[in-house]
Design goal:
By secondary structure, the chain is mainly α. It has one domain (about 25-80). It is about 25% helix and about 0% strand.
């Protein structure tokens, strides 16, 4: 996103690829094992995971940033595997 946000000098530059599914960067949430990590807040981590995976939050993620740079979202909803 440095290119989109103009953090780097863009003189003479243009985007070579946009919208390629292979360029997605996943964000991960891991719930710690309290037996290995003292003080791990497992209940809060599970609540956060539940919030992030909720249909309402996934809709918000899928719409975030649309219209700011182009018609695509800046982030992508997850595909939840069971």
């Amino acid at each position: 996103m440095p290119y989109r946000r103009s953090i780097i000098d863009q003189s003479g530059m243009s985007a070579m690829v946009t919208g390629d599914e292979r360029l997605k960067r996943p964000f991960l949430l891991a719930i710690a094992d309290p037996a290995k990590i003292a003080g791990a807040r497992v209940d809060l981590a599970r609540k956060l995971a539940s919030f992030l995976r909720s249909p309402e939050t996934q809709v918000w993620i899928s719409e975030f940033g649309k219209g700011k740079y182009d018609d695509r979202s800046l982030f992508f909803p997850v595909v939840i595997l069971h």
